[in-house]
Amino acid sequence: MALEGPVILAPMAGITDRPFRRLCREMGASLAVTEMVSAQGLARGRGASREIARGFLGEEPWWVQLFGEDPGSMARAAKIVEGMGAGGIDINLGCPVAKVVKTGAGAALLKEPARSAALVRAVRRAVKVPVTVKMRAGWDGGSINCLEVAKAAQEEGADGVILHPRTARQFFKGSADWSLIKGLKDNLTVPVIGNGDVASPKDALKMLDETGCDGVMVARAARGAPWIFRDILVYLERGEAPKPPAPKERLRVMLKHLELLGEEYGARLAMKRARMHFMWYVKGLRGGARFRSRISGVSDMGELGRIAEDFLLGLEEATR
After folding, report:
1. What angle do CA 193, 11, 259 make, to 5 degrees?
2. Alpha carbon of residue 257 to chain centroid
């Protein structure tokens, strides 16, 4: 669990692919976890699952998140990704999405603490690399059992615990209860990473101060803003809140992201993800709604880049 810094990119389905992880690592994230990967898919040799789990050159430490409900499949999948070169494995005990929960995986495992412990035990015995678990507070407000599940995971050999202190039923509504992160930190001996409602450098420092956690995991706030990791590190070191990136700097990152997506998926397949990320990059900017409308039907990467240049260089000129 030795990391170069205290700020980590959370796994997000459809978002934390190799291009985005690369950007966030370059911007200061000490770790960037893959999109969740189906243990069943890996165990059955599905190429799509293996592709999601693959790292990029220089990504070390490269951490793969696995989801599943069967200890045997989880163990086999863990061995596969360790063999691929992964430096760590995270077990998903928190995804609240219906298609995952209905299989008995993700947050559904919070309703079965014994099964979640069995998953950790099976994975821990199967691999030598570090193993963590990422969980929610509990299934619903009447069953907050994250401490029970975390203690069992620690006893079964987990090297760290990541807590998003909302219930599965909450999804992303309401507020994350950071006191639950503190509860884990006060009662566990393994590192505890906090996740939830970290939208700024000030939030990151506040979480660290209030909970005593060993690190902060950033999720939705990194969408369209991979520089948040750099900003958090600067704030933790100097106590200064960095200014938002100038339009020209924002454009540089967007065009780098576009290039990486093209290299990863090819021009045609890259466009859907590129439009999605570009819409996040301009959130809150003057004229952003008009920009999003302009790119919604664009199917050519060159045109997408030119529209971004026109928009952001125009903003840069207007601020002089």
Report:
1. 130
2. 17
Domain boundaries along the sequence of the chain: 7-238, 247-318
What is the Cα–Cα distance from 281 to 288, expressed in whole angstroms? 9
pLDDT, one tens digit for every residue, the chain (320 residues): 677 889 999 999 999 999 999 999 999 999 999 999 999 999 998 999 999 999 988 888 889 999 999 999 999 999 999 999 999 999 999 999 999 999 999 999 999 999 999 999 999 999 999 999 999 999 999 999 999 999 999 999 999 999 999 999 999 999 999 999 999 999 999 999 999 999 999 999 999 999 999 999 999 999 999 999 999 999 999 998 888 899 999 999 999 999 999 999 998 899 999 999 999 999 999 999 999 999 998 999 999 999 999 999 998 877 76
Q: How far apart are CA 77 and CA 83, in angstroms?
A: 10
- Residues taking part in catalysis: 95
Structure-block tokens of residue 163: 């807590």
240: which 2 tokens?
């200064």
Q: Give the rounded distance of the alpha carbon of 51 from its chain centre.
A: 17
Which residue type, as a one-letter code, is found at position 193? I
Find the distance separating the first CA and the last CA of the chain, reported in whole Å: 46
CATH class name, domain 7-238: alpha beta
CATH architecture assignment, domain 247-318: Orthogonal Bundle (1.10)
For the sheet with 31-32, list strands across it: 31-32, 7-9, 215-218, 192-195, 160-164, 131-136, 88-93, 63-67, 37-38
Q: Which residue has the tokens 């200014």?
A: 243
